[in-house]
Design a protein that fits this description.
mainly alpha; 3 helices; two-stranded parallel sheet; 9% strand
């Protein structure tokens, strides 16, 4: 099965993905740490992360920064990248 999740903007999406890693760093033992560790294992083994950006410099730079921050904070590596190119719009007069 495939589930596609459209995450919020890169900063908020990064915080969402980083949460279980931060939880384990903050409280490395106990039931909360066990649950966070299970989520981390699931993220590492069952989730494929794809980056999507529109073909504009700022959006592409933000996607690259997101990738670098994600790897640094979680060791999760995106496996796909897409450019979201809108179709041409033809105006009829």
């Amino acid at each position: 099965d495939t589930v596609v999740v459209d995450c919020p903007s890169s900063g908020h999406g990064l915080l969402m993905l980083e949460t279980p890693f931060a939880a384990v760093r903050a409280a490395p033992v106990g039931p909360f740490a066990r649950m966070a560790s299970q989520i981390i294992e699931w993220l590492k083994t069952s989730v494929r992360i794809a980056l999507v950006a529109i073909p504009e410099e700022m959006a592409v730079v933000e996607a690259i920064e997101f990738k670098d921050d994600l790897i640094e904070r979680t060791e999760l590596k995106p496996s796909l990248a897409f450019l979201n190119v809108p179709r041409s719009v033809t105006t009829v007069k």
